[in-house]
TrEMBL record:
GO terms for molecular function: ATP binding; phosphorelay sensor kinase activity. Residues 1226-1480 form the EAL domain. CDD domains: EAL, GGDEF, HATPase_EvgS-ArcB-TorS-like, HisKA, HPT, REC, REC_hyHK_CKI1_RcsC-like. This is EAL domain-containing protein. It comes from Nitrosococcus wardiae. Residues 818-911 form the HPt domain. It is found in: Cell membrane. Keywords: ATP-binding, c-di-GMP, Cell membrane, Kinase, Membrane, Nucleotide-binding, Phosphoprotein, Transferase, Transmembrane, Transmembrane helix, Two-component regulatory system. It is a multi-pass membrane protein.
């Protein structure tokens, strides 16, 4: 029953439910009725049969009286036989009064069992499954006796019992009848049930079919189909449902339209609101830029304290207004739904440090302690929207500082949840401020909401900050809340889902190895400050202690000194209760036991409250709240000063960078903003010029070179975007000047718009001195304020002796920044600089000051990248000479520049090339020492530095892993037993890193048991050396391991990489592809193989030489690499063939995008040795597993697709089924084409050209035809492109030229002519240097006058090699040969080349002639070409003329001549003579009236 109910409750239709219900009901009814009727009928039959048995027994008893009276069985035999003859009577018996049997016939008459009864009347004694047992008494006078009582006897005697009879009656008849009745009832019931079911199904169908149709209509409406209406017939109720549904749909559609209109209106309103907010923001920021900029300049002009206070108040007010504008804009963008998150990899503590730094000034003014604590299980590198997290923290912590008068404000970060790379962080901001009443807490995150009106008056604010925080947290998928008690402070918290960074990196600028192992004491009464410092020092690997006051600090210092674990540094707060920091300093200095401790003071001012240079052992001062970077710098400075005597204390003020040699162009239309920008730049010492709009800027840049341009984006006449694009167009092929955008717009995508326009960076308004300084330092090549600048005012070269060849700080920083690309950068520098030097020498000889300035500027920029200070200094002097317009002294400077470059070149080559196979690399090998024992690290460093090695240090295995992730060292010295992560585990994890295969790892430990040695080698160690160390043996062991490693790397490089480009070779390609196939077969991955072939490379290689060809291959390889992801592979198979493997792609569109990008970058010009050259590429693509599942198939299919792409040129093609057949046909056709010339399968046909004015024949065009022995006539459109591609067109073209000249000379001898013979010249022929010589040789051989030869060159072919073609054209023209531009109008159609090229005729392409009668545009083009040609004194030939109307039109518009099927098809020479030349000799005009399309022949 439950199953049945589940079926009804399941997802079945109403009709099915009805059918199922009717079927089950009718079946149950039929069965039950059959059983009931059968049961009743069986009962009736049973009663009848029992009654028959009773009568038979009674009769038998009457007939047995005589037998019992006479005790004679014979008297009863006849009666027994008669009784047994009754149906179903199976046995009878007669018994006397003693119950002795007198007669028994048939079955045993006694019933089974012991309970036998002898009743005084007829009785059904027992009933069994098979029979009934009857018993009856026998009297002397039976009730049915024939003797009747005498009426004359007054008292008749009573009947006398004389015995008993028994009868057994079987149930066979009963069973038979019951079965027959049941079968009959079932048959009748089933028939009736079937009839009833069919009737009910018909009724059901009539009811449910309209309902089903209605349901289907409703489903279509649910799926979103429009204009759905129900059309059905049925009972009245169904029709009512249809009407109701249609009415409902009509109402819903009307409401949907209303909602759409409302939505569109809302979106438009949101857009207008967003635009309004952005425009208002821009308009407000523009005057604010002037206000804040001028105030910042005013603040740095030596004001009195009171004046400075007034200026600071104005600055703070301006900043508050700016923050309000930003909040309103953010709120508007979020409300309008146009706010988007931008997830990036970021370092969490950098974000927190930035927040602390921004709020430091406010906290210092209120004497508040400010800090943060990050839980240990929180990853340092994360992925998320760092800008929005920073914005939320600034809002929350800014509010906390605002509403806190004393105490501290802290931020704590905890890991709430982590699943694989996904994690949820909770940020909690606590303060000890005024708190929030409970009744206001539930409204605190609503817009324009604050606790009460008094708060607004006292503390200010708009009430938007927390609302924006809530919306930002919601957008990131987190939650936000507050817990607070009024008067006791508040705790704001929010959660954010983030991800671990894919490639976590160490924080920039912090080398933990330099401070690891130091012992430092923290002395601070602030809990949050101590927790922050403890966490920081723990992460840096330092040993630290914490004290809350001076007394506790003295006790800890003395205890540590007594135990031999004295502290190296003490970090002391300047202001503490009880004992001030200065007092503690004096107490430490007075105690000889601890007087050696160096002290760093902390204070809440940017500078010390008093002069502390006289304080003993105070080496530095840092402002609170403490940030990691200043703290790290202070500690490192202190460590480096140790052992050099007491340093003189220097204030924290930094020297402004010097920009006095740089010229800056400010492009700004607002005068106030102009003054702000000029004032700030002049404060830095820059030379500044101003342009009021983009047009003025364009004119200034065209006349003069600038080091940097500050460009406003929105200006009249020409905005900044358009100006930038035009400046970049002017700089094509030259060094680009950095352009930094300035705009007050802060809308989403503004920065991307600036970068896409060609700008290099983005600077928001209002301008800030520090931000502007950073941008200048970055784009002008100044790496720090302390960078030494060479005096370039003259040509004094003595100052170079004081400079290093390569600044190690800049050089190492570049190496760490670019990683594996460092060697390629060096190679590019070494390849390009000689070219620049040659151009520089040429500029000096030709006195080209502009070229001198540009080339020197390029060399200077490249040299500064590598820290080549001396080379950059000389280049800078040359640049200044060029800028001044003089080249005096340039030759001397060039000599010095070349000398300096030689030294730099030698130093850089040592970084990338070994002297010889197996020799010691001149570059210092990097050795990483990993040991927790500081003394051991120092000893190993001293020993190995004497051997010329470059040493890096790590305190434990974790730090070693972090270093190896950044840059794999050449050798690792690893202690086995260390805290955090021991050497064995670290060794195993290093071996798992890419690039660690050839890095030797030497385990150094005091363990010398066999198990430890086996553990070291099983972990991946290369060698093992026990302690105590023999340093001489160690040096030899390290040198041997490094030599072996270099040899192994060199052999591996030769075996698996291309020697020219450095790319993987065919062997490594197949090996990598095999591994990839094994990996993806176990899953469902997809990858693509791109087969690349460089078009036109052979031409460049043959024309300009193999050296240029090699440079071109290397440059092309670099461009291909830059188009790919870091995990993709590009290999050079040989020649100009490359292959690319794109791993883990989601669809073929990814491969298509990469192929498009590669085609685009390779089609751009390459410049070498002062020449520009163009190539293109053809790419074939095969996909795994669609196009093959093994290396050979995938590679072959990609190669096949590449040949198909080659037919189109500079394109790509995916492999398709059947391409092998097409490729095979193409190869067969190419083979046949190569044999065709030798087998004389080519013929030349001729088509006449007729003068429209005279109707006379003026020329013939020679056209080649190929009669293939098997395929018959092959179309020129099929074999000419193949001949072009294979180069056969050169020999074919020479044959056609000779045949045409021979034939023309033959006609001249026969008296035909003279007229021109036009021959086509291909692009391949035009590119060859021997074209003119070949034509001269043919003319001399055939004797044809040059003035009768006309060469036709296709317009697009001319433009591809225009510069090379002009001298050849002029030489041919001087010989008298005519030149014609074929297919004019289908190529570039440049009027410039018409003016420059010495051509005689323009041939209008047939595509314009075909529709001149139907297409007004084609007619206008034809008329324009004719007018243009005649104005340039050129003749015009119209090709493809096929009708008399076309001829009439051309004649009316003064076209000179025509050619086409209207006159004649291309014919053989004999047919030309028979049909045309003989008639022309008779001076009959040649037209279709004479030969109406009859000039046909075998072509």
């Amino acid at each position: 029953m439950r199953r049945l109910l589940r079926i009804f409750r399941g997802p079945i239709g109403f009709r099915q439910q009805l059918v199922l219900t009717f079927t089950i009901g009718i079946l149950c009814l039929a069965l039950l009725s059959s059983l009931a009727i059968s049961t009743l009928s069986s009962r009736t039959v049973r009663t009848t049969l029992i009654e028959q048995g009773r009568r038979a027994t009674e009769t038998f008893a009457a007939q047995s009286t005589l037998a019992l009276l006479y005790q004679s069985a014979d008297n009863a035999k006849e009666a027994a036989r008669a009784t047994l003859a009754f149906p179903d009577i199976q046995g009878v018996a007669i018994y006397d009064l003693e119950y002795q049997i007198l007669l028994s016939k048939g079955q045993k008459a006694l019933p089974p069992g012991d309970d036998v009864q002898w009743p005084k009347q007829l009785w059904l004694e027992q009933e069994t499954e098979k029979a009934w047992y009857f018993v009856a008494p026998v009297y002397t006078r039976q009730g049915n006796s024939e003797q009747e009582e005498s009426p004359f006897v007054a008292n008749p005697p009573d009947p006398e019992l004389i015995g008993f009879v028994r009868v057994v009656m079987g149930k066979d008849t009963l069973k038979t009848l019951a079965t027959d009745i049941l079968h009959g009832n079932l048959l009748v019931s089933i028939v009736l049930a079937a009839v009833l079911l069919f009737v009910l199904l018909g009724i059901t169908a009539r009811i449910t079919t309209p309902l089903r149709n209605l349901a289907e209509t409703m489903r279509r409406a649910q799926l979103g189909e429009k204009q759905v209406r129900s059309e059905m017939d049925g009972p009245k109720d169904i029709m009512d449902m249809k009407s109701a549904f249609n009415t409902m749909i009509t109402v819903l559609e009307a409401r949907e339209q209303e909602l759409k209109r409302a939505r569109d209106a809302a979106l438009e309103s949101a857009r207008i609101k967003g635009e309004f907010a952005a425009n208002v923001s821009h308009e407000l920021r523009t005057p604010l830029n002037g206000v804040l900029g001028m105030l910042e300049l005013l603040r740095n002009m030596g004001l009195t304290p009171r004046q400075r206070e007034y200026v600071q108040v104005a600055c703070n007010s301006g900043e508050t207004l700016l923050e309000l504008i930003g909040n309103i804009l953010d709120f508007s963008r979020i409300e309008s739904g146009r706010f988007k998150l931008d997830p990036t990899d970021f370092y969490l503590q950098e974000v927190l440090d930035d927040v602390i730094g921004l709020l430091a000034g406010q906290a210092q003014r209120k004497d508040l302690d400010l800090g943060y604590v990050v839980a240990k299980n929180v990853p340092p590198s994360l992925r998320g929207d760092a800008i929005r997290i920073r914005q939320i923290l600034i809002n929350l912590m800014g509010n906390a500082v605002k509403f806190t008068e004393r105490g501290e404000v802290s931020a704590e970060v905890q890991l709430v949840e982590k699943k694989e790379k996904k994690l949820v962080l909770q940020f909690e901001v606590k303060d000890t401020g005024i708190g929030i009443p409970i009744e206001f807490q539930k409204h605190i995150f609503e817009a324009f909401s604050q606790a009460d009106s008094s708060t607004t008056r006292k503390y200010g604010g708009t009430g938007l900050g927390l609302a924006i925080c809530r919306q930002l947290v919601d957008l990131m998928g987190g939650d936000i809340g507050v817990e607070s008690k009024f008067g006791e402070g508040s705790s704001f918290w929010f959660t954010v889902p983030l991800e671990e960074a894919v490639a976590p990196q160490e924080r920039r600028g912090l080398n933990r190895a330099e401070v690891a192992g130091l012992r430092l004491l923290i002395v601070d009464d602030s809990t949050v400050s101590r927790r922050f410092l403890e966490q920081t020092f723990s992460f840096w690997g330092m040993y630290y202690g914490s004290a809350e006051n001076g007394r506790q600090a003295l006790k800890m210092l003395r205890s540590a000194a007594t135990q031999g674990r004295a502290y190296d540094l003490a970090l002391i707060d300047e202001n503490m209760p009880g004992m001030e920091g200065v007092d503690l300093v004096h107490r430490i200095a007075a105690d000889s036991l601890i007087a050696s401790v160096k002290i760093i003071l902390m204070g809440r001012q940017r500078q010390p409250a008093s002069d502390i240079s006289h304080l003993p052992d105070v080496v530095n001062y840092i402002a609170k709240p403490v940030q990691q970077s200043p703290l790290y710098n202070a500690i490192v400075t202190t460590v480096k000063q140790s052992g050099k005597g007491q340093p003189e204390f220097l204030p924290a003020a930094t020297e402004e960078p010097v920009f006095s040699d740089y010229y800056i162009l400010v492009v700004e239309d607002n005068r106030v903003n102009q003054q702000v920008a000029v004032g700030m730049l002049e404060q830095f010492g820059c030379h500044v010029e101003v342009a009021a709009n983009g047009q003025e800027a364009l004119e200034l840049v065209a006349r003069k070179s600038y080091d940097l341009v500050l460009m406003d984006c929105h200006m009249p006449r020409m905005d900044g975007y358009e100006a930038t694009r035009r400046i970049r167009a002017l700089e094509a092929g030259k060094v680009q000047v950095p352009i930094i955008a300035m705009t007050a717009n802060v809308r989403e995508g503004d920065s991307d718009k600036c970068l896409s326009a060609g700008m290099n960076d983005y600077l928001p308004k209002p301008l800030r001195l520090n931000l502007l300084r950073d941008k200048l330092q970055h784009w002008l090549g100044l790496h720090s304020s302390s960078t030494t600048r060479v005096d370039l005012s003259g040509t004094q070269l003595e100052s170079l002796d004081d400079e290093v060849l390569l600044d190690p700080e800049v050089f190492n920083q570049l190496r760490a920044s670019v990683g594996d690309a460092f060697s390629k950068m060096i190679e590019a520098f070494l390849e390009d600089t000689p070219l620049y030097l040659d151009l520089l020498r040429k500029a000096i000889i030709e006195n080209g000051t502009k070229e001198l300035r540009d080339m020197a500027h390029s060399i200077k920029g490249s040299a500064m990248n590598f820290g080549a200070v001396r080379l950059a200094s000389v280049a800078k002097q040359l640049e200044e000479l060029g800028r001044s317009g003089s080249s005096k002294g340039a030759r001397k400077l060039l000599t010095v520049l070349i000398s300096e470059y030689s030294l730099v070149k030698e130093a850089l080559q040592q970084e990338i090339q070994p002297e010889s196979y197996g020799a010691m690399d001149k570059r210092p090998s990097r050795v990483l020492i990993v040991d927790d024992d500081r003394a051991m690290r120092m000893a190993l460093r001293n020993v190995l530095e004497e051997g010329g090695y470059r040493i890096e240090e790590a305190v434990n295995g974790e730090q070693a892993l972090a270093f190896c992730r950044r840059q794999m060292p050449d050798l690792v010295l690893m202690d086995a037993i260390m805290p955090v992560l021991d050497g064995f585990k670290a060794c195993t994890q290093i071996r798992d890193m890419p690039g660690s295969r050839h890095t030797p790892i030497l385990i150094i430990t005091a363990l010398d048991d066999e198990h430890s040695i086996e553990q070291a080698f099983s972990a991946g160690a290369t060698d093992y050396i026990p302690k105590p160390l023999h340093f001489g043996v160690l040096r030899q062991r390290v040198a041997r391991l490094l030599d072996a490693s270099r040899a192994e790397k060199h052999v591996h490089q030769l075996a698996y990489h291309d020697s020219l480009t450095g790319l993987p070779n065919r062997t490594l390609f197949r090996k990598h592809l095999e591994k990839l196939l094994n990996r993806v077969r176990s899953g469902k991955g997809m990858f693509a193989i791109l087969f690349l072939d460089l078009d036109r490379f052979k031409l460049v290689n043959d024309t300009l030489g193999h050296d240029v060809g090699d440079l071109l291959l290397k440059a092309a390889a670099e461009r291909i690499v830059h188009c790919l992801r870091s995990g993709d592979m590009v290999a050079r198979l040989g020649g100009d063939e490359f292959t690319v493997i794109l791993e883990e792609i989601s669809s073929s569109e990814v491969a298509e995008g990469v192929a498009t990008k590669i085609c685009g970058v390779l089609s751009k010009p390459f410049a070498f040795l002062g020449q520009e050259m163009y190539i293109s590429t053809s790419i074939g693509i095969s996909l795994y597993p669609h196009d093959g599942e093994d290396i050979s198939t995938l590679t072959k299919h990609a190669d096949t697709a590449m040949f198909r792409a080659k037919e189109q040129g500079n394109s790509y093609q995916f492999y398709e089924e059947g391409m092998e057949t097409a490729a095979a046909k193409r190869l067969a056709l190419e083979a046949a084409l190569r044999r065709a010339l030798d087998r004389n399968e080519f013929t030349v046909c001729y088509q006449p050209q007729v003068d429209l004015n005279t109707g006379k024949l003026i020329g013939m065009e020679a056209l080649i035809r190929w009669h293939h022995p098997e395929r018959g006539l092959v179309s020129p459109s099929e074999f000419i492109p193949l001949a072009e591609e294979t180069g056969l067109i050169v020999s074919i073209g020479k044959w056609v030229l000779r045949e045409a000249c021979v034939q023309m000379q033959s006609w001249l001898r026969q008296g035909f002519g003279p007229f021109r013979m036009a021959v086509n010249v291909s692009g391949r022929e035009l590119e060859r240097e021997d074209l003119v010589d070949k034509i001269i040789a043919v003319l001399e051989e055939t004797g044809l006058p040059p003035e009768l030869l006309e060469l036709e060159i296709t317009e697009s072919v001319v433009m591809k090699c225009a510069d090379a073609a002009i001298p050849k054209f002029r030489q041919l023209r001087e010989m008298g040969i005519k030149l014609a531009i074929d297919d004019f109008g289908t190529g570039y159609s440049s009027l410039n080349y018409l003016k420059r090229f010495p051509v005689d005729t323009l041939k209008v392409d047939r595509c314009f002639v075909r529709d001149i009668m139907n297409n007004s545009d084609d007619a206008a083009i034809i008329v324009g070409i004719i007018a243009l040609a005649h104005s340039l004194r050129l003749k015009v030939v119209a090709e493809g003329v096929e009708t008399h109307e076309q001829e009439t039109f051309l004649k009316e518009h003064h076209c000179d001549s025509i050619q086409g099927f209207y006159l004649s098809q291309p014919l053989s020479a004999n047919r030309i003579e028979q049909t045309i030349l003989h008639r022309d000799r008779k001076e009959y005009p040649l037209s279709s009236k004479v030969y109406p399309l009859r000039a046909k022949g075998t072509v």
